[in-house]
Amino acid sequence: MRKYLARRAVYAVVTLLGVSLSIFVILRVLPGDPLVAILGVEGHARMTKEDRVRIMADLGLSAPLPVQYARWLRDIGAGELGKSFFRGDTVAELIAHRGPITAEIAVLALIVSWIVGLPVGILSAFKPNSMPDGVARTLSVLFIAIPGFWLGMLIVLALLFWFGWKSPIIIVHVWQDPWQNLQIVMGPGIVLGLAQGAYIARMSRSCLLEVISEDFVRTARAKGLREGLVVMRHALPNALLPVITISGVLLGFVLGGSVAVETAFGVPGLGRSLVTAVIERDIIVVQNLVLLYAVIFVVVNVLVDLSYAWLDPRIRYS
Amino acid sequence: MSDHASDPKPTVDRRTFLKRVGAAGAGAAIAARLPFPGPAAAQDATVRPDPAAKRGGTLRYAVHNAPAHFDVHQSGTVANIGPQSPMYDTLLRRSPKDGQTIIPDLAQRWEISPDNKKYTFHLRKGVKFHDGADFTADDVKATYDRIKNPPKGVVIPRTPLFATVSDIVVVNPHTIEFRMSEPRPKAYMLGAFASGWNIIVRKKTLDDNQGNLRQVMNYPGTGPFRHVSRKDKEIWIMERNPDYWNKGLPLVDKLEIYHFLPFTPELGAAMLSGRVDYARLLDPVTWRKAKEMPGVTAANFNQSVIQAFWTNTQKNKALADPKVRRAIHLAMDRHTLVEVVKDTAPMQVGGFVYPFHEMSTPRAELEKKLGYQRDIKPAVQEARRLMKEAGYAGGLKNLDFVVRDIPTFKLWAVAIQAMLKEHLNIESNLRVVQTSVWFDEAQAGSFDLAISAIVSTLMDPSDIFSAWYGKDGPQNYSRWTNPVFHDLASQIEREVDDAKRRTMVRKAEDILENDPPLIPVAYEQIYDAWYNKVKGQNPSTFFGIYDVVRWDNVWLG
């Protein structure tokens, strides 16, 4: 197990180095001048060549690219994620302040996806080709197809025009006011959760259909067990592995999807910060947030793999 | 300290009396002409609290409050002026009553020498910065020295306004003189001193930070509100400055300034749901909805921005020909272009000078000219004749049309592309790029056609004649030159007689009509809305969003 963990850790480091190098190079190669956002249009127009050289040096952008990359890795190693080009706010503060909101949205989305997806999948699997199955499958396709940001915008507009209501406009953490906090994260969490729930419903349906035709399920029924026990004790645990795998992958989608959905709901989470940083060409913030997302994705995948051994006694890592 | 308590009692002699009557008369004349602003200045009109005003409460104001940096002098965006202005004062200011009349601020009164080459400001006594330090003429000198001659690595867009200021002399701690190498029109100079960008900063603050305040969030001002806290891209909280020199102001105890990008649905939703009391830069759909809401007031006003279309005269031989550029100018159906974006951003038709400026061609007259008429057939006919005369009757092909990635420009680009194709057989390829890329491309001249927006500090024609149309103007992206125009612009800059200046400006407009340095697409307007409990300010007659953002006279009913 330790050997396996060590090997996964090495793979993870290599993957993250690859991600960091890619994002670093892409951000430097893409056209666009951060000084437009920093100085404003008029200031940028009046900037002399000497001013440019000095300001770029102040921002740490005039050093050779390998030096800039090495400095970034060194800062990460030292636990310093650097400062935004703009306003001088530190990226660590940004993550500490906004990260919890995005994390709550992701967790809520995961919970919603399981609460909605699993029962629907079970119902579909045990009543295949019935009307409830047809409705469930249609809704699954619908929620997979509908873009989250569009659904989010519709919800925001409907709440506004029908009830004159909008969620709080600044961050309120769960430890400050849980009710206000829930109002902020509820919308994006549900929208993202419904889309992921649709995947889970489809995956659990197909896995259960496969499992319920197995001999051990037939035996359980032959013993006279109630259908509920057959499902909960025998069929479901054996069908869950692929669902857990897809949940890990979906968490990546939730993080990616939060970029658009947070913007649609006007929630000031990390996703929205990433959008703003891209628009402002704030490359220090962009590269650190992308790397953070990559770290979360890699860690979740390792945890999913480890959970297999816990869920299925036949699986052993050596 | 009251306005007059510590200052020497003003003696009203005959000259002062006549001066004040003249100023008041000019103010009244200008007010009668609103919304066309002029050089009105009223030295005795320091902002006073409304006698009916109630004190206290929290004003929740929504505006773009995420500046790229905190240095107001170096900025050009509402993201700085919007949240930071309430913490600072300027030498002079525009009256919050009409947004135009120039009134005293930290300078209690001023004198202009008969040859217009010396401006003397008498500063208020007893004014304190938020850190408790006394305000003196040294702070004014340090501020204006920096604006006029920015230190290395500091770029201040307002520097050219003070190009003719040769010396800034501290006469005594409360008197300062600006001596000029040559005269400039009074309206131009007073407008520059009253610009909301030119906030007075403490000399020590500048010295301590090597003249660069980009990353200094809370540097002390003398303004009506003091910094309390700030969460990036969320909220900036300020409290009433209890030591404000203008006793009785400000009227509200607390300002909560919420961050919302302009024209966004989030801003509209915050306003319509009552999460904020006052919203600036609303999108037209929300604004129209707000206008119908009971208990809400909505206002629109002019903004110091031109939405323009550039033709690169150096990259493309055809576009160097004034006839071709005039033909493109005439082929634009401006009224349709305004209509195209009516749900995205509020716009109005205009020529080469702000259409609401008193020196520009009046709107009724402008709309009789080719290129501005509602029926564009005569203009298109003339445009085709010009193309034929220039040798391009068959049109032009494969022009690179660079479009700034903002909804209005994307909508316009498609419409303009179709108009040019249909009217002049000019074919172009649209290339939509991010804002930062657009300005890179524009400055490098990597385009044939381009569309975007640019701003000016002052509405005065001389400011835009040098920045937008000047030979080396920083925003002359077409790389246009016209020696006759440049000579005339230089004379206009020096002319101190308003009547003569107006005639010259009209002459300049004629030159620009026939040899366009850029093609004006439209002029922006601003949409604000607020709940009726917010009293004391209505920006309907304001020019732009950069000069009257203090909130000192606003109260909650």
What is the name of the CATH class of the domain at 303-525 in chain B?
Alpha Beta
Largest interface, counted with CB-CB under 8 A?
Answer: A-B, 48 and 50 residues
Could you give me the name of the CATH homologous superfamily of the domain at 303-525 in chain B? Dipeptide-binding Protein, Domain 3
Mean pLDDT of chain A: 88
User: Roughly how much helix do the residues of chain A carry, as a percent range?
Assistant: over 70%
Instruction: Kindly report how far apart the N and C termini of chain A lie.
Output: 5 Å
**Helix count from the secondary structure assignment of chain B:** 17
CATH architectural group of the domain at 303-525 in chain B? Roll
Describe the main β-sheet of chain B briefly: 11 strands, mixed
Write up this protein.
- The complex is a heterodimer of chains A (318) and B (557).
- Chain A is an all-alpha fold and 318 residues long.
- In chain A, 79% of the residues lie in helices and 0% in strands.
- Chain A contains twelve helices and no strands.
- Chain A has helices at 2-29, 34-46, 49-58, 65-77, 91-126, 131-145, 148-163, 178-211, 215-222, 227-265, 270-280, 283-311.
- In chain A, helix 11 packs antiparallel against helix 12.
- The mean pLDDT of chain A is 88.
- Chain B is α+β, with helices and mostly antiparallel strands.
- Chain B has a domain at 303-525: Dipeptide-binding Protein, Domain 3 (Dipeptide-binding Protein, domain 3), CATH 3.10.105.10.
- Chain B has helices at 14-33, 78-84, 137-148, 186-193, 203-208, 265-272, 284-292, 317-320, 322-331, 334-340, 363-366, 377-389, 407-424, 435-444, 461-467, 483-494, 498-514, and strands spanning 58-63, 92-94, 102-104, 107-112, 118-123, 165-172, 175-180, 225-231, 235-240, 254-259, 278-280, 296-311, 347-348, 396-404, 426-433, 449-455, 519-531, 534-535, 555-556.
- The radius of gyration of chain B is 24 Å and the shape is globular.
- The two termini of chain B are 26 Å apart.
- Residues 1-39 of chain B have low confidence and may be disordered.
- Chains A and B meet through helix 2, helix 3, helix 7 and helix 11 of A and helix 6 and helix 14 of B.
